[in-house]
Design a protein that fits this description.
The complex is a heterodimer of chains A (117) and B (110). Chain A is mostly beta strands and 117 residues long. Chain A has no helices and eleven strands. Chain B is mainly beta. The chains are: A mainly beta (117), B mainly beta (110).
Chain lengths: 117, 110
């Protein structure tokens, strides 16, 4: 059974770049789509983007100018970078494996990132 | 403001049937895009509950069912149990905004 584990700094300063990594175990990155989803404390889910194992991406238009998703097949890892963060980017960030291009089938446990000085 | 609209909360007594609705528009559910449902138990990550409008992944009890009609979808839970208390989210695709979620519905088992 595939397992996803997010990791990265729990605290990021405003205007800096948030960087997270998702380690994939129990399965290969290919030939799947991958996604990052975030959830501000006490609020709903927000889709950040999709990343295909070929490297092609599809981002939420509201975040597109600040987001970069990438993968490292040698390490079986997915990465997320979000630049120029503000307090509004404070959220639990989930790494998700996608089935059939839209089904969020396997979720990591999530990691809380707080944006604060 | 979520693209898909869900009631913030719903409640029911053990054994009862409850439904959770997800209202969309012609640019998402009404355009024929699949609707998926997720259950988020307190303090945990969401998990896939229903995919492709009506399909249950293995391990999901048949007490959970879903349907879609026009620009809306709904999730039904029969024989309500205390462990069903959770947040429920619908998800679809929108031709303008890509992947979209409902705002979530909190189910309380009385």
């Amino acid at each position: 059974q595939v397992q996803l584990q997010e990791s990265g700094p729990g605290l990021v300063k405003p205007s800096e770049t948030l960087s997270l990594t998702c380690n994939v175990s129990g399965g290969s990155i290919s030939p799947y789509y991958w996604s990052w989803i975030r959830q501000p404390p006490g609020r709903g889910l927000e889709w950040i983007g999709f990343l295909y194992f070929s490297g092609s991406t599809n981002y939420n238009p509201s975040l597109q100018s600040r987001v970069t998703m990438s993968l490292d097949t040698s390490k079986n890892q997915i990465s997320l970078s979000l630049s120029s963060v503000t307090a509004a980017d404070t959220a639990v960030y989930y790494c998700v494996r996608v089935r059939d291009s839209s089904i969020l089938s396997h979720w990591g446990r999530g990691t809380l990132v707080t944006v604060s000085s | 403001q979520s693209v898909l609209t869900q009631a913030p909360s719903v409640s029911g007594a053990p054994g009862q049937r409850v439904t959770i609705s997800c209202a969309g528009s012609d640019s998402n559910i009404g355009a024929g895009y699949d609707v998926h449902w997720y259950q988020q138990l307190p303090g945990t990550a969401p998990r896939l509950l229903i995919y492709g409008d009506t399909n249950r992944p293995s391990g999901v009890p048949d007490r959970f069912s879903a349907s879609k009609s026009g620009t809306s979808a709904s999730l039904a839970i029969t024989g309500l149990q205390p462990e069903d208390e959770a947040d429920y989210y619908c998800q679809s695709f929108d031709t303008r905004l890509r992947t979209v979620f409902g705002g979530g519905t909190t189910l309380t088992v009385l």
